[in-house]
TrEMBL record:
Domain of life: Bacteria
Identification of the protein by name: Phenylacetate--CoA ligase family protein
Biological source species: Paenibacillus profundus
Amino acid sequence: MMVLNPLKKGLTRIRMYRQKDVFGKYKTLHQQQWLAPEEYEQYVHAKMSALLKHACKHVPFYRDNIGVNELIHHNVIDWPRFMQIPLLTKEIIREHYGQLISEDIQERKWFEETSGGSTGEPIRFIQDEDTMSWMLSLKLLYDQWTGRVPGDRQIRLWGSMRDLLIGKETMRTYVGRWMRNERWINAYRMDKERVKMAVHSINEYKPKQILAYVESIYELAQYIEHHQVSIHHPHSIMTTAGVLFPHMRQTIEDVFQTKVYNRYGSREVGDIACECEQHKGLHVSGLTHYVEVLREDGTPAAPHEVGEIVVTPLCNFSMPLIRYRIGDLGVWSDESCTCGRPFKLLKEVTGRICDTFINANGTKIQGTYFSQLFFYQDWVKQYQIIQETVERVKVFVVLKHPEVGLSGYEAEIQMIDDQFKAVLGEGCDITYEHVEAISPQASGKYRYLISHVMA
Ligand SMILES: [Zn+2]
């Protein structure tokens, strides 16, 4: 093992470098992350400008609607005009799929992907090897922020059934993971057996970093805390695929005696943002993604103001997604990070748009309002709140002590009920049901809130 590790690290790097130029791009990102603000702005401008020119010349959907001269004058982007480009929705991608594909697609090593589809139908989209290698190199950059370099041991607590390739793992998959010093644990619904297995695996493998679905590592941390199990302390934990609420971060950090780095992204656009070692918020990698946070009227949200996250990935020329509505809400920070990187900071990603509830008067209430009512209820193991109509809400609860039943928590439920009615109105009918388990979606993500009214 002593000899194998440096060897594996070396081979992994050579393989990455040769196959997809991932390592080369990683080196570029690694250097560019320290650009001075002015140089950084120029770099972002150049990348966006190249994408817009390409889209207006080679992608029918854009070429038919926008002239390149409208957007770029004397090599300078007209940002107010850029902000008039209609937002790209999942529905538009479905409807205009063919027109969104670049005409020079055959010259690119392209492939089709589908996104998880946490709400409704999944969407199909196209990426290519160049996009992919930028996305992978960005993952390496974020990893490096957490102290992990390629080849350092990593355990993945992964929830996506598709990524896990359950039953379809080939020898190549295993060898690839072994070479990269990755061990994958199926964390799709963490039952007792899986939790025990994960603890054993972490203690035995002693990873430098754990990369995990938020919900999975939180569940694991709660188990370890409750059962007083001894656990290896990794150098860092990176969470992804879900909202990391402050109480979750606290528990995970306390249990594993390490820092949590939150990462934000999606399958169709890659990893947009991640925390650096200063943990001031999530740095948006402007080298690869252009992010806007917008009010409902389409104007930019001010720092501390919740708005819709709209993203333009700068590295996908096969199917440019310009001003794509990813479906999440976020908040800009007005702080600048002490790390010195020029990237903007998202204070937080507060949840999905479909998590927003609406009352009979048409007022929108952010899902976090309801989530926080359940955070510190130590009798609740898991919950899901579904708004069926503006006046009907169903709450499903998994109890820590099922034998007690909901009738044992009348006072607590009354308190929650009052808080619900304070925003949804006295006339709102709220029912509570005790269930044995709440299943995650096929993507492995849990949904605490579902609004059929907003969807
Ligand atoms: Zn920073």
